[in-house]
DUF2304 domain-containing protein (Geomonas paludis), 119 residues
Amino acid sequence: MDLTKIASLGLSVGIFCFVVWLVRERRLREKYALLWLCTSVFVILLTVSRRILEVAALAIGIYYPPSLLFLVGVLFLLLVAIGHSVTLSRLSESNHNLAQEVALLRKQVEDLKEESKKG
């Protein structure tokens, strides 16, 4: 194995182990970890066997196999961006609803204070 394969394999295994550690420490939720774990396993497979990369690239219609790695990288980043956008949208809506509820509760508390002062 050449130095590039060893470095790539070490980095991929390191990322895999780091994600597993983050999940075990409850710092990363399982639904987010799945994408990272699948990507690291995919990179490990491609690193171990160049033949898998060549066959996968030709099956898709890519004639320069390393271009498949760039395609996978771009798709990975796209999935991460979409996932963050969905989460951000959900949190924004939740934040809006909570702000409205707090405003209503604050108004009720003020009304009760006024009633108690009058009566």
The longest helix spans residues 66-118. The chain has a mean pLDDT of 90.
